[in-house]
Write a structure and sequence with these properties.
single chain; 473 residues; alpha/beta; 8-stranded parallel beta barrel; 16 helices
């Protein structure tokens, strides 16, 4: 059985060794994530180069996703590195306090707009919600609070407002610099942190294209406001990421599972790719096996239809990066054996506006109701492969394309495998037989078994898929 759900793995110190990176990719990584929040541009360049060199050496197409840092709303530091806050104590956040002037009663903050963004009665969540403060009063430079949930608070921890509403721009000056680097490195995907609405996503795409980048845009859904604007954000992006860390803090952990399912459903309905991320296998940072809760978490995301599941610290800094990928692949395959992952109700009551999409829908309906073993899409941009992958099915999809960038991009699409194939170098009269022979050679089908082929009447032209053909190997 070929795994359909894709694995995104964050590259970091734990995988800087070539042997470790090779083992990681051989274990099943489809997309390598470079986190611009950590390291410098030399680190990023080296890691992108290593990923592409290793992928080529093992005969794999592996996409690279660059993840922008976005606005980091943080406290400053404490004189002794950390303090313990007790329920009921007064505690203030003050713009005028220095870098390491914090103590048990106050700490500096880096975000100058915080006093303007909050009001008495608001709840502020620090350190991913571990510390909860209630705002009592606000002055020009100081937010005075009461500790509602105490604990140990250390330097540079993040601040969220329950329910969202902080006005920080989605793109910082650092992000704008990193967009230039992303374009120069020819990254396949660029992810935006904390978009509020479609305008943020559109701005990222414009800046990336102006810099010469051709990567697809990922919108990380991690602000409460983004949920209210989810359809317009999905319309503006190519990929949505359910970034459950900050999102869970802003909307509350009880709301998170339902919102995750909604985003996956809406993304697929709107023909967008979706990644489920954050703490999926968190215990494997230190443990060689996942918890049963983590197994269920990954499996449920797969059953819900996510295109990809993501590993962060597990592979970037964890003690068992390869085992984490192997475990995630095993869980995905187990979930995909459930019949529900192969039954589709996608767009059954919708009409189609594009010929390409109509062909894709007809192809997958046929594949799910007829004895065919696989689908082959001759594609330039990968759009037909994307539409095919929106339909739940147990049939593997192969994107035959001459473009390396397209091959890397489709590695994120659920159920799609890239194949290097230059349609312009094959005689038209021999094309069908050539494709059938390739699929037999790959062991996908045996002689006499059926395939579905989608293609355009004019080979090598993007966006012109207009034919579905059932062929025999």
């Amino acid at each position: 059985m070929q795994r359909r759900t894709k694995i995104v793995a964050t590259i970091g110190p734990a995988t800087d060794d070539i042997e470790a990176l090779t083992a990681l990719i051989e274990a099943g990584v489809d997309v390598a994530r470079i986190n611009f929040s950590h390291g410098d541009i030399e680190d990023h360049e080296r890691r992108v180069r290593q990923v592409r060199e290793v992928a080529a050496s093992v005969g794999r197409d592996v996409a690279v996703l660059g993840d922008l840092q976005g606005p980091k709303i943080r406290i400053r530091g404490f004189r002794n590195g950390e303090v313990t806050l007790t329920n009921g104590d007064a505690f203030s956040l003050d713009l005028e306090l220095g870098k390491d002037d914090g103590d048990e009663s106050q700490v500096g903050i880096t975000y100058e707009s915080l006093p303007r963004d909050v009001k008495p009665g608001d709840r502020l969540l620090l350190n991913d919600g571990a510390i909860v403060l209630t705002v009592d009063s606000v002055s020009t430079t100081r937010v005075t609070c009461t500790v509602r949930q105490g604990g140990v608070l250390s330097n540079n921890k993040g601040i969220n407002r329950h329910g969202g509403g902080l006005s920080a721009a989605a793109l910082t000056d650092k992000d704008r610099e990193d967009i230039l680097h992303a374009a120069r490195l020819n990254l396949d995907y660029v992810a935006m942190s904390f978009p509020r609405d479609a305008r943020d996503v559109i701005e990222l795409r414009r800046l990336l294209r102006d810099a010469g980048g051709e990567g697809y845009v990922v919108a990380k859904i991690e602000r409460a406001e983004a949920i209210d604007n989810i359809d317009e954000i999905l319309q503006a992006c190519d990929v949505a990421m359910v970034a459950r860390g900050d999102l869970g803090v802003e909307i509350g952990d009880a709301e998170l599972p339902g919102v995750q399912k909604m985003i996956i459903h809406r993304a697929r309905a709107m023909n967008r790719v979706v990644i489920t991320a954050t703490q999926m296998m968190e215990s494997m940072v230190k443990s060689p096996i996942p918890t049963r809760a983590e197994v269920s978490d990954v499996a449920n995301a797969v059953i819900d239809g996510t295109d990809a599941v993501m590993l962060s610290a597990e592979t970037a800094t964890g003690a068992y990066p390869v085992k984490a990928v192997e475990a995630m692949a095993r869980i995905c395959e187990g979930a995909e054996r459930q019949a529900v992952t192969r039954t589709s109700q996608h767009r059954v009551e919708r009409s189609f506006e594009l010929v390409d999409e109509a062909i894709a829908m007809a192809t997958m309906y046929t594949a799910n109701h007829f004895d065919v073993k696989a689908i082959v899409a001759l594609t330039e941009s990968g759009s037909t492969a994307l539409w095919l992958s929106r339909i739940r099915s147990g049939r593997p999809i192969y994107a035959f394309t001459r473009h390396e960038s397209t091959r890397r991009r489709v590695t994120l699409y659920r159920g799609v495998s890239p194949v290097s194939f230059d349609v312009q170098k094959v005689n038209e009269t021999n094309l069908t037989r050539h494709i059938a022979d390739e699929m037999v050679a790959r062991g996908v089908v045996r002689r006499g078994e059926r395939l579905i082929l989608t293609r355009g009447a004019l080979s090598g032209i993007s966006g012109k898929t207009n034919t579905m053909k059932i062929i025999e190997a």
